[in-house]
Every structure is written in structure tokens, then in C-alpha cells.
């Protein structure tokens, strides 16, 4: 089964509680999503490959490890995943960015693809798929499948809030990926929204309804 890491840091917990609050407005919500992505990215990118480069210090020349940033891709699931990109790029500014456009049908809750553009060569990169919400797991699982179809191999999935149903599905469909979850919530409601969740992440990030 996939490796799942559930975050256990007070800063992340605190910021997720602020996100959940229905009185948190668009501006603050956006900032929080970016900050949480950065804090979670610190953990998720723990095994990012480094390469030794020659550095001249004021004292002498040495070989010192640096992130091979060109070998990384962050792939947000549109739209809500876009809110997490800047937090990851703050950590790895040279990462390439791919996009996968998916929306969930409001009736069936099935994901529908409307866009896919990934950086080449995708097979050589560490790929971090980001989406704040993992509800039924349909969108996350579909996004990972697309990336695999395009040749992606080393794939990590990062979400801020997951429902047990979605986490189980993603693990079952993709036992080879690593999954990072900010907080695991109780369940889905009859509209496949996460409880207690935070509502519609995309609408809250972009101020739509
Ligand atoms: O696990 P699932 O049941 O597939 O639900 C999660 C998906 O739903 C939301 O996107 P949405 O369809 O609302 O699109 P948006 O980001 O454009 O708002 C969310 O950002 C995930 O992509
Ligand atoms: O709770 C949910 C479920 C799907 N998408 C969201 O944005 N929120
Ligand atoms: Mg949405």
C-alpha cells in the first residue's frame, strides 16, 4: 500500500483550523493555503535528490549539496490546487509546473478532465501533485493516472484535508505513490463534501460561488 504521512505539526493544525472557519475571507484563505502548502512541502520533499556542486567559501572551495530543482515538477489539480503552487515554488523556485484540469460533476461526483500539460521529460522528475481536498478520491486518482500515462514514475500526492473514503481509494488505485495529508477528517456527506472540511476549496480561494 501507499505510504501515507499525516501531518502532526501544531503550526499546520492551527492554520487548518483557521481555513475551516467560515468567517475566513478569500484573501486570508489564499494566504493560509499557500503557507500550509509550504509547511507540508518541507516534509513531502524530504527525499528530494541533491547534487554536489563546487562552492567557494571565504575560506576554501568545497563540494556542497544543492537541490536538483530542475528534476522536480509540481502539478496542481485545477482549480483549487493552484492555490498551493506558490508555497511549493517558494521552497524549490526552479521546479517546473504542470497543470491538470479536472472538475467534479455536481450530480455524479465523477471527475471530468478539461486540461493536461506536463513538463518534459516527466519520467525523470519527482512529481508533487497538489490539491487541497481529497474527498471521494476520484479527482486525485484520475490525476495520478494521467501522469502515469504520460510516463511519470516518482509521484507524490499532497492534500490539506482528506476524507477516509478518498484516502482509501487513492491508496488502492495507486499503491506505489506517497501521500501527504494535512488532516484526516471524519467522513463525506450526501453531496460528497468533506465533514467537517472547509467547504468548496476552489470557491473559497478564488471568491466564486
Ligand atoms: O476527491 P473528489 O471527490 O474528486 O473531490 C475533490 C476535488 O473537488 C474539488 O475540485 P472541484 O471539482 O470543486 O473543482 P475546482 O477546484 O475547480 O473548484 C477539489 O479541489 C478536488 O479537485
Ligand atoms: O469538501 C469538499 C469536497 C470536494 N471539493 C471541495 O472543495 N471540498
Ligand atoms: Mg471546487
UniProtKB/TrEMBL annotation:
The UniProt entry, under InterPro entries, shows: PRTase-like, PRTase_dom, Upp_B, UPRT, UPRTase/APRTase
GO CC annotation terms, alphabetical: cytoplasm
Q: Which domain of life is it from?
A: Bacteria
Start and end of every Phosphoribosyltransferase domain?
7-208
For uracil, which residues are the binding ones?
194, 199-201
Has keyword Nucleotide-binding? yes
This protein's pathway: Pyrimidine metabolism; UMP biosynthesis via salvage pathway; UMP from uracil: step 1/1
* Activity regulation behaviour: Allosterically activated by GTP.
Establish whether keyword Cell membrane is in the entry.
no
**Record-annotated residues binding 5-phospho-alpha-D-ribose 1-diphosphate?**
79, 104, 131-139, 200
Q: How is the cofactor bound?
A: Binds 1 Mg(2+) ion per subunit. The magnesium is bound as Mg-PRPP.
Assigned EC number: 2.4.2.9
**Which cofactors are required for activity?**
Mg(2+)
- Swiss-Prot/TrEMBL catalytic activity: UMP + diphosphate = 5-phospho-alpha-D-ribose 1-diphosphate + uracil
What processes does the entry annotate via GO biological process terms? Answer: UMP salvage; uracil salvage
Key words, A-Z: Allosteric enzyme, Glycosyltransferase, GTP-binding, Magnesium, Nucleotide-binding, Transferase
GO MF terms here are: GTP binding; magnesium ion binding; uracil phosphoribosyltransferase activity
Q: What does this protein do?
A: Catalyzes the conversion of uracil and 5-phospho-alpha-D-ribose 1-diphosphate (PRPP) to UMP and diphosphate.
Q: Tell me which family the UniProt entry assigns to this protein.
A: Belongs to the UPRTase family.
Q: What is this protein called?
A: Uracil phosphoribosyltransferase
- Organism phylogeny: Bacteria, Bacillati, Bacillota, Clostridia, Lachnospirales
Amino acid at each position: 500500500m501507499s505510504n501515507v504521512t499525516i501531518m502532526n505539526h501544531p503550526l499546520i493544525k492551527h492554520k487548518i483550523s483557521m481555513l475551516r472557519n467560515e468567517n475566513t475571507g478569500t484573501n486570508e484563505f489564499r494566504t493560509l493555503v499557500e503557507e500550509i502548502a509550504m509547511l507540508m512541502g518541507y516534509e513531502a520533499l524530504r527525499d528530494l535528490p541533491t547534487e554536489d556542486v563546487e562552492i567557494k567559501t571565504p575560506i576554501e572551495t568545497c563540494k556542497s549539496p544543492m537541490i536538483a530543482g530542475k528534476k522536480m515538477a509540481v502539478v496542481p489539480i485545477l482549480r483549487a490546487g493552484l492555490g498551493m503552487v506558490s508555497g511549493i515554488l517558494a521552497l524549490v523556485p526552479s521546479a517546473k509546473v504542470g497543470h491538470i484540469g479536472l472538475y467534479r460533476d455536481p450530480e455524479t461526483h465523477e471527475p471530468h478532465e478539461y486540461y493536461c500539460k506536463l513538463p518534459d521529460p516527466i519520467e525523470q522528475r519527482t512529481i508533487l501533485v497538489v490539491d487541497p481536498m481529497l474527498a471521494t478520491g476520484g479527482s486525485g486518482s484520475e490525476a495520478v493516472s494521467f501522469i502515469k500515462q504520460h510516463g511519470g514514475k516518482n509521484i507524490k500526492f499532497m492534500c490539506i484535508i482528506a476524507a477516509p473514503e478518498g484516502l482509501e481509494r487513492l491508496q488502492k488505485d495507486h499503491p506505489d505513490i506517497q501521500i501527504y495529508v494535512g488532516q484526516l477528517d471524519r467522513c463525506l456527506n450526501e453531496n460528497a463534501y468533506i465533514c467537517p472540511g472547509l467547504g468548496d476549496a476552489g470557491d473559497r480561494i478564488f471568491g466564486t460561488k
